[in-house]
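not sure who needs this but someone in the group chat was asking about Polysaccharide pyruvyl transferase domain-containing protein from Diacronema lutheri so here u go. i didnt clean anything up, its just raw.
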Amino acid sequence: MARSESVPRIAAVNTHLEGNLGDEMETTPVLRALHELGYKLDVFTSPWKAPQPNLRVSPRAVRELLYADEIFVHDPLEERSSGSRGARQALLARNYTAYIVMPGPIRAKRLRTLCQHVHALATKPAVLAIGVTINGLELHGAGPRSSARSMQGWQRDCANALVVAREPLTVHNWNALVPRGKDRAARSATELAVPSLETPCPALGSAVLMGDTSFSFQPILSLKAMWRAHYAGWAFGFFRAGARWRALIFHRASNQRYGLNAPTPRAVRVRVLARSRSADVRGGATPELSTAVPLVAPPVEFLDFHASEVAFATSDVDLDTSFLVQLVKRLGLPATRAMLLENVEQMWGLIEAARDAGALVLSDRYHPLVAAHVLGVQAQAIAYPAEAQKIVGINSLLQLPRERMQHLNDRGWRCVREVLASAAQKQGQVLSGTTRVKVEGA
């Protein structure tokens, strides 16, 4: 059947569907919001984890794909394969209202490639990067030695893009690079101002801090409650009598060479980013913490535990299972201390159960920290090299009260809706839906 050009469509690019629970937390709210606005969604997968296109859509991605009208497993921004060329032809030939880079990490070079392709289109549709961390901006024009020519190239190619970022360093680096004149951020800044809910949205070409779109994720509450009760009554029973349940540690395999080194075989030492003592995720922070977040990592500190006092977990079973199974074996712990989480509600229930037991939640993965913040659970970031920009970013956001994070999400959605409404009006499109995006608390 021929496609109706009157139906407003969006290209959702760099969509992470590999089965990571964090991807599900942050991607589902965006796809749902666009669907409820009345858009048809063409979903182009991310090539990040799976080199083979048929592995880029996990069976665990069902919740996200509920809103997809068509799925392209080849990467349209890759230049070499025939499958990618076909996906790129579809990406550029269809009359999209907007091109949206979906939540998660994306390399600066890939984002600029998309901007260049879209900039060449006669309709000049908008580009929105929602809930992203942009890696490598400092290498492509945002650094202190950037040339004027490099900056002008970015300003030309990305003038029609709005970056709605999940962490502050992306906002700072982008605004030091793309905006012109008085709107450009100072490159030497050490903190980023946090906008209020009433702050007007910036012009295209700029970046705005939204925080993580996971703050708009709507869990199945009965399933979360089931898992919370399950872990409260089962997992903690494996700790030796009289021992205090002290830490739930999310640890990624890619950091195994750096962490958990301790002086004795059954000891666990964790290197964490120091938390501000004046911040409380349940609400209430100093005025300074409410209005700005740091752009640099805080000092580190070390936490020591006996192996009997900790359990380990992962939000990405594909990458971390083998490592965690071997880790608990090496520490002389039962296999059940490696908690391999298969759905978002399971992770949220475990984090709440850890809080109920008086345990610390520690993570070198980004989204367990986000989940803890959404739930109002104190958490601390583990300071290892893998994906340091994301970890430093979420550590900054952990200093904000949860209510302030929800305001950032609300404002981010407002900016997205304004850009999409303007783009639809420019193309003579009328949307049938109204978004019902709302911020979820616990």
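also The two ends are 44 Å apart (CA to CA). if thats useful
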